[in-house]
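idk why but the lab printer keeps eating my pages so im just putting this in chat instead. protein + pyridoxal-5'-phosphate:
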Amino acid sequence: MIRRWQNILNTLPQSTQLIAVSKYTTNTNIQVLAQMGQVDFGESKPQNLRDRAQQFPNLHWHMIGPLQKNKAKYVGRFAYMWHSCCNIEAAEAVAKHVGTTPLPTLIQVNISGEPQKQGVLPSDLPLFLEEFSTIHKLELVGLMGMAAKGGDTRTSFKLLHQCRDDILRSHSKATALCMGMSNDWRIAVEEGATMIRVGSEIFGET
Ligand SMILES: *Cc1c(COP(=O)(O)O)cnc(C)c1O
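predcted complex ->
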């Protein structure tokens, strides 16, 4: 595990941050990587995010998965950053539980071209951002996206990059471009990712 983690870090440009997706792994492995200096971890289920944020309060816990409104409180209270915001009602529900400092939030964009997938469609982004901007406890810091399995990964990542550049003109803090997982993070880095989310390549498949 440590060697795989180090190999990824050695390959990453300085400008790209690694989020270690720990949903597949044990607390012991998290402890080991934390001791090696990994600070940013991702969880895809709100309850697991809460549990691990309570167990490891000194680490940064990134919420990367889909969210139902009734679990919003865990994200509002425990997330360091929310990557998967794509629904205004859920966003309002999360915001209610955020403390005094606004929660850094990425809008998840559907870049795969599959209508059933999570995320705001690129063409709906301007309207979504208008509504989002009324939620003062959430601070827009960028965009997140996932390529389709077997789809044209590079084209999807280029699309997200373009969306990020478009919104950056009116939202100067929205610099983050979070894309790339175990099977495609190298392409994501080539396409300008500022954050990648890697789980199984570090921790193994489960
Ligand atoms: C699980 C997960 C990842 C990590 O997936 P791997 O392919 O194991 O690296 C990244 N992003 C999201 C949203 C996930 O749910």
